[in-house]
Automatic annotation (TrEMBL):
Keywords: Glycosyltransferase, Transferase
Keyword Glycosyltransferase carried by entry: yes
Domain Glycosyltransferase subfamily 4-like N-terminal positions: 26-206
Gene3D superfamilies, alphabetized: Glycogen Phosphorylase B
Top-level division of the source organism's lineage: Bacteria
Name listed for the protein in its UniProt record: Glycosyltransferase
InterPro entries (alphabetical): Glyco_trans_4-like_N
Keyword Glycosyltransferase: yes
SUPFAM superfamilies according to UniProt: UDP-Glycosyltransferase/glycogen phosphorylase
Species of provenance: Kribbella sancticallisti
Pfam families noted in UniProt: Glyco_trans_1_4, Glyco_transf_4
Length: 395
């Protein structure tokens, strides 16, 4: 049976312009001859996509935000009124999260109803899976599930929702069993999904394309850089306390800030956000990349954050949280040192150990770059789609 180029519809509730996984997958599939249309969220007007791919935007509400015009990163406000606002937010956040996600699906469904059928519907994360499964069924299309996280095992702000998690896992698995293939980001998450009953789970890591120019690093590090989302769950209070112990060694922080998140930066220097390529330069000038997470949920324990692979692309060793999946990759490739999440003295000690054997860790990162790159990982994605294409008879 001849292989067909596929018409692929991707659904994603993440802001597409900042989701490097979706953009890279779109580029890889387009380069392989498939046509890709993405229905995402908050796509800027005129946002460029890979030649042949198209994108449209569906918005949803911005979320519960605190009032006031205080600094986004700085000393938190106090007082009974503020405490009451935080209590209400804590109670309402789970319902608000579900409502905004449903709002996006309802609006996106209106767009899909007017579309011609696609060959493949590719759902990015659980909050698009229900809609993707519905239209894959209507169109007799192939369903693909791309689980960026262990969705119902994440650490979420707001009051605990144990029954929602239990019901959600069951519902997710029921929908995901309809998928011809499931992709995810780490071996640990893949193993959990297989244990829960999903037979064909394949790992496509959030690696980065290899740089065109070989990275140039200082002989010894000048500082350490956290480049990523600034918010709860990133263990940033530990970074601040460790920075006090490491001073005058520089600690830098770069990234967009979650609404309502407050952090006393102390000796940590906040630097402006910039492009991915420019982040490479700042990483290389600093010499050490921070890959931090709290040990508060199974998703964190099995995660491989983008910033780990961004550091590999930049040629920069890492100091990372000692969590199972991170530990496995970092020790296998000698990418850096590990610290106990929540323990500032452990983090400071890990930085000092990095400095003491800096050249050795740089060599480890350089060697790992031959395998930990998007050129390698995208082959798994393209191969899976090639198998799907072969299963469709050319009309």
């Amino acid at each position: 049976m001849a292989e067909a180029d596929l018409r692929v519809l991707m659904l994603a509730q993440s802001p597409i312009s900042g989701d490097s996984r979706i953009l890279r997958e779109t580029a890889a599939l387009t380069a392989a001859g498939h046509s890709v249309h993405v229905v995402g969220r908050d796509v800027p007007d005129g946002f460029p996509v890979e030649a042949g791919a198209t994108v449209e935007s569906v918005s949803r509400s911005a979320g519960l935000r605190a009032g006031g015009n205080g600094p986004v990163v700085g000393h938190g406000r106090r007082g009974l009124k503020v405490l009451a606002q935080r209590a209400v937010r804590w109670l309402l956040l789970p319902e608000h999260r579900l409502r905004t996600e449903k709002q996006w699906r309802t609006a996106a469904a209106g767009r899909l109803a007017a579309m011609q059928p696609y060959d493949v519907v590719h759902a990015h994360d659980f909050n698009t899976l229900e809609l993707a499964a519905e239209y894959a069924g209507r169109w007799s299309a192939i369903l693909v599930y791309d689980s960026h996280e262990l969705w119902f095992d994440r650490a979420l702000p707001g009051r605990p929702t144990p029954f929602w998690r239990i019901r959600g896992r069951r519902y997710e698995l029921g929908l995901a069993r309809r998928a011809r293939v499931v992709f995810t980001v780490s071996d640990g998450i893949a193993q959990r999904l297989r244990e829960r009953g999903l037979p064909d789970v394949r790992v496509v890591r959030n690696t980065f394309p290899r740089p065109e120019v070989a990275p140039v690093l200082p002989a010894s590090p000048a500082g350490l850089l956290y480049a990523g989302r600034v918010g709860a769950g990133r263990d940033l209070p530990t970074v601040v306390e460790a920075a006090r112990q490491l001073a005058p060694f520089k600690t830098l922080l770069m990234g967009s800030v979650d609404p309502n998140y407050r952090l006393d930066l102390g000796p940590v220097e906040k630097v402006p956000e910039t492009s991915i390529d420019e982040v490479d330069r700042v990483l290389q000038e600093s010499g050490i990349s921070l890959v931090t997470l709290t040990n508060t949920c199974e998703n964190h324990r099995l995660a491989l954050p983008n910033k780990l692979f961004h550091a590999v692309r930049a040629g920069v060793p890492v100091v990372a949280a000692d969590l199972p999946e991170l530990r496995a990759v970092i020790t296998k490739y000698h990418l850096g040192t590990l610290y106990e999440p929540g323990n500032a003295s452990s983090l400071a000690a890990a930085v000092r150990a990095m400095i003491a054997d800096y050249a050795g860790y740089v060599d480890g990162v350089r060697a790992a770059a031959d395998e930990l790159n998007w050129e390698h990982d995208s082959e798994r994605l393209v191969a899976a789609y090639s198998t799907l294409a072969k299963s469709i008879q050319v009309k």
